[in-house]
């Protein structure tokens, strides 16, 4: 009885502290960006052409370069992990962190902190590696947390399909509308699929990493939690807005 009370007390205390891992990941990405050349705020990288040159070298050092990933060097094999914390612009950072804030908190609460952190890093790594394998001859650098965040979306679809999500649709003049998560997330996945079919091999958005991450996240949640009771409260709401 005493052990049960201690465990319950610890669970309540952890819940009261909020989504610590999600907030830590957001903070980590923000700090890395602010200290890096892409923010334009660190005078150590200079200005003008010097800043552009420093940015290129920075992304090649910490990002995934497909034609270098499978060379077998330890540094290359670490880049799918380091690239998760590197972003190429303010818009890139803010867009990814918005999605992580909206969907990560509830997924973390459902999975638990250590499991959520391991899930995030592993699926993000695999999404990056899968994109690199599919574009093995490309010299274009891949950075950003979108592969891992896509995995969070996939897991969210299985774990909390009826949670309410406020979405902004550009073709509806950004009118905020609330839909069940399964509608928003399947619509988002369909958009990524269509965009991936039209994407070229040059620089741009790594839609394939999004698709792989989403699929990995959903499959993991299905395999790990299919025997447990999923949260189905339709009134449950996420903590922010998402833009599919």
Automatic annotation (TrEMBL):
TM annotation in the entry: 84-103, 115-134, 140-160, 172-193, 205-223
Top-rank lineage group of the source organism: Bacteria
Location relative to the cell: Membrane
Membrane topology field: Multi-pass membrane protein
Keyword terms of this UniProt record: Cell inner membrane, Cell membrane, Hydrolase, Membrane, Protease, Transmembrane, Transmembrane helix
One BP annotation, GO: proteolysis
GO molecular function, one term: peptidase activity
Entry annotated with the keyword Cell inner membrane: yes
Peptidase S54 rhomboid domain residues: 77-225
Cited InterPro entries: Peptidase_S54_rhomboid_dom, Rhomboid-like_sf
Keyword Repeat part of the UniProt annotation: no
SUPFAM superfamilies, per the entry: Rhomboid-like (SSF144091)
Full protein name: Rhomboid family intramembrane serine protease
């Amino acid at each position: 009885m005493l052990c049960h009370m201690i465990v319950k007390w610890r669970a309540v205390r952890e819940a009261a502290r909020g989504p610590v891992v999600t907030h830590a990941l957001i903070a980590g990405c923000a700090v890395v960006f602010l200290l890096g050349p892409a923010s334009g705020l660190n005078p150590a990288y200079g200005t003008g052409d010097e800043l552009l040159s420093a940015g290129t070298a920075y992304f090649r050092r910490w990002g995934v370069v497909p034609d270098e990933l499978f060379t077998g060097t330890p540094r290359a094999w670490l880049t799918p992990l380091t690239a998760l914390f590197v972003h190429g612009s303010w818009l890139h950072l803010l867009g990814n962190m918005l999605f992580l804030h909206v969907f990560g908190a509830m997924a973390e609460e459902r999975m638990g902190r250590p499991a959520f952190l391991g899930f995030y890093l592993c699926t993000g790594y695999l999404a990056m590696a899968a994109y690199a394998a599919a574009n093995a001859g490309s010299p274009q650098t891949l950075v950003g947390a979108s592969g891992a965040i896509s995995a969070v979306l996939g897991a969210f679809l299985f774990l909390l399909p009826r949670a309410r999500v406020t979405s902004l649709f550009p073709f509806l003049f950004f009118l905020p509308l609330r839909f069940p998560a399964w509608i928003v997330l399947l619509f988002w996945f369909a958009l990524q699929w269509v965009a991936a079919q039209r994407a070229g091999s040059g620089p741009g958005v790594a839609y394939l990493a999004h698709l792989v991450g989403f699929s990995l996240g959903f499959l993991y949640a299905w395999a790990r939690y299919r025997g447990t009771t999923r949260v189905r409260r339709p009134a449950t709401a996420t903590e922010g807005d998402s833009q599919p």
